[in-house]
Structure formats: C-alpha cells, structure tokens
Amino acid sequence: MKYLSSILLLAIPALAAPSPTITERQDAGCGIASGFSYQTDAKLPDPFTSTNGTKITTKAQWPCRAEEISQLFQKYELGTLPPKPSSVTATYSAGSIKVTVSDGGKSITFSAKITTPSSGKAPYPAIIGIGGVSIPSQAGVASITFDNDGMAAQASKSSHGTGLFFNLYGSSATAGATTAWAWGVSRLIDALEMTPTANIDTTKLGVSGCSRNGKGAFIAGALEPRIALTIPQESGSGGAACWRISDAQKAAGKNIQTAGEIVGENAWFSPNFNAYSTKTSDLPVDHHMLAGLIVPRGLFVIENDIDWLGPVSTTGCQQVGQMIYKAMGVPENFGFSLVGGHSHCAFPSAQASDLSAAVSKFLLGGTGSATEVSKSSVTVDPTTYIDWTAPVLT
Ligand SMILES: *[C@@H]1O[C@H](CO)[C@@H](O)[C@H](O)[C@H]1NC(C)=O
C-alpha cells in the first residue's frame, strides 16, 4: 500500500496547536520503520516500543512515536487520512458556515450549523458534535453540528465509498467513514479559522458524539491536533473499547460488539481492517493507543454499562490509555467515567461535574481545576491485558 506519509508529515506540523508540554507529531524520519512486522499478541501492544525496536524513554520521543502510531492506525484500521487539500474557502451567514473544499480538480461543499451560547464572550469556545452534540450544553460554549452522514455514509457495510469525502477522493479511497469524518472536521476547523465572523475561538474546540458517532469523535480527536478536548460518549467497540478485550469478553459469553461484528455491520472502518477483524491479536495497535494520539490534550471518555458497549473492555482499555497520560506527566488531562443504569446516550447527572471540570479547563480558558478522573462501576485490573509496564518518561 502506497502511503501518504511524506505529505502527511509536511502537513501536520503546520496545523499543530500549541500544547503545554510537547509539540504534536513530528517531522522527517518519523513513521513506520521499514521492515517492521508485528508478532501476534493477544495482549495489548506496547505503546512505548517503536516499530524500529527502540524503547521510548523520554517525552521528547513521543511525538515521533505518535506519528508511527497514527500511520499504523491508518494502515491497519482507519485507512489513509488525506492531508489538507489545496483549497478550502468558507462563508458565514445566519448561524451557518458553508465550506468548499477543492482537491485534484474536484470540489465539494458542506454546511455546519453554529449555535452560540446565551452567556460567555465571543469568540466562543465550541464543541463540534459528530451528528450533533448529545452531552448537556455547557454555559459559555457554542455547539456546532457536523453532518457526518453527508461526509461519509454509515448505512451498511456496502455504504463504504458513499458521501462527499468519496466524491472528492474517489469511491476506492481506503478511509473508513470515521476517518472521512475526521478529515471533514479538520476542514470545518480550517473554515472556522478563516472566518472570524463565525465568532468561534478555534484554540478552544471540543469534539463529541454518541455511540457510532462517539467512535467518530474519538477518532477525530486522535487525528486532528487542533482539538483541545475530545469527549467520546458511549462509543464502545471501535471507540473506547479495545478490540482484543472485546474479543475476550465475547469468548467469555458476553453479548458484546466486536471487530468481526463491526465490519459486517457498517462502513466505519477501512476495508484495510477487514482482514484483521477476526484476528485482532495481529494488529500492531489497539484503542488504548488512541489516547496516545491525543495526549497531552484533554480527553474525557464517557461510558455506560450496557453489555454491547463492553464495560470491561472500555474500562480496561482506557485504564491502559491512562498509563500513557501518566507516563507523559499529564495525568490530570485524562478522564474516564463509566456510570451505568441509564439508557444509551442518556447523559446521567452523576457525570455532570466531571464533564464540566474538563470543559472548564480545556475550553473555558484553563481556569478550571480538572484532575485525573478514572471512575467505573465495573472493576478491572488493567495489568491483565498487558505484558509490558509503562515507563516514567523523562
Ligand atoms: C526509532 O523510533 C523512535 C520513535 O518512534 C525515534 O525517536 C528514533 O529516533 C528511531 N531510531 C532510529 C535509529 O531511527
């Protein structure tokens, strides 16, 4: 498979938002080492061993490793994320931003609805909702509705290749729907940056979405470094859950969504992923490493105890993701909250104060006092799922 890594590497540093401790991604020389092959392992891959065999010991090495991880995700699971195209233009009128993107002689246009808050101060921080925001609205924070279905359809397995993204890049583009949505969110952010009349502070952006759209929110946060706070809600398998743990739970008799089920149900992932859906132990990545693409930015993962979502899998997977935040010296930027006993995507009030603290810290000027959150109604020992230990990076 031909890889767009060199273009990607040139494009991403230019997009990177300032971050407290490290610069996002890295330039020349970072990427999957040539000759890399992965030894099948039922335990979660070690985020701290590079594809060239080097152990990560310093924080300064992480952006380079993160670039590898991003490329591994794209190669095995997500499909290729195209770089920023040659032309993005935007106009704003009456609560709607209209975005036109041109690449390779083709052009697409989409619109997103912006709802500004009744309190706070313009330009407003905003949460981009994949298919709409389903968490409670936050004082002083705008919400922006991103039409993910229009960008890449999620109607069935055979809807791969349908939607605006594929009108631009062709129906045989490898991107799964979630990757195409992440690309669309990036273009929306390009548009917001060039349109001050939209009154959005693009240094204070969150992304959220629930269920299938929560998978999309997690992946958008992982692929787009300008997102300050990623809030996947009840994303389950394909989002906060790890493929391997979900498979183990299924083998133990749980009614849980797995990679095998997902590739048969819908077009969320790349056709590249199909071959691995029944042998997830062959994947050099798993979803704890999505957290490794978001660190040191804010991450607040909301889950539920519905069997299909895999409460043991989401809890165990993100406890391992939390190890990356700890290793990087920013445990307070990580949150995981699983509260059960409510219907799917109904946000329970028990999670409200932790969510508000994260919003306050990452979207409302850093004045909040969010601390590391790791709460779950199921008890999991994350060391069951790994055969490595996290270093303290210097
Ligand atoms: C191996 O990869 C790591 C990052 O993943 C990088 O920091 C290091 O420079 C690489 N080593 C060599 C010899 O290329």
Please give the CATH class.
Alpha Beta
CATH architecture: 3-Layer(aba) Sandwich
As residue ranges, the low-confidence spans are: 1-26
Spatial order of strands in the largest sheet: 1-2-3-5-4-6-7-8-9-10
In CATH terms, the superfamily is Alpha/Beta hydrolase fold, catalytic domain
**Structural classification:** alpha/beta
Gross geometry? globular
- CATH domain topology: Rossmann fold
Please tally the helical runs, counting DSSP H or I stretches of 4 or more residues: 11
| Helix-strand topology string | HHEEEEEHHHEHEHHHEHEHE
Beta strands, count: 10
Approximately what portion of the residues adopt beta-strand conformation?
15-25%
Global Rg = 19 Å
- Kindly report the oligomeric state of this protein: single chain
Largest β sheet strand count, sense and barrel closure: 10 strands, mixed
As a percent range, the share of helical residues equals 25-40%
Distance between the termini: 36 Å
- Counting structural domains, the number is 1
Overall pLDDT confidence: 92
Bound molecules: 2-acetamido-2-deoxy-beta-D-glucopyranose
Pfam family, one: GCE_fung
GO molecular function, one term: carboxylic ester hydrolase activity
Signal peptide: 1-16
Family: Belongs to the carbohydrate esterase 15 (CE15) family.
